[in-house]
TrEMBL record:
Pfam families: DUF397. Residues 10-61 form the DUF397 domain. InterPro entries: DUF397 (IPR007278). Residues 1-24 are annotated as: Disordered. It comes from Streptomyces macrosporus. This is DUF397 domain-containing protein.
Length: 69
């Protein structure tokens, strides 16, 4: 299920989760934020992205252009 920016109020597991426990969940309860968390630690911290940064991150992951610093 794709999230709808500003309209996804519940955590949604990534469609790219491989079933191996390495999953992220995403929600966007407000138009100006996309939140991401580790599905294995639901009470743990989450990251918040502004929409443009989230889109750039997803594009970079899809293109395989991210590098480790």
């Amino acid at each position: 299920m794709a999230i709808r920016q500003g309209m996804t109020h519940v955590w949604t597991k990534s469609s790219h989760s491989a079933g191996n426990g390495a999953c992220v969940e995403v929600k966007s309860p407000e138009p100006q934020a996309v939140a991401v968390r580790d599905s294995k630690v639901p009470q743990g911290p989450s990251l918040a992205f502004v929409p443009g940064s989230w889109a750039a991150f997803v594009d970079a992951v899809g293109q395989g252009t991210l590098t480790r610093g």
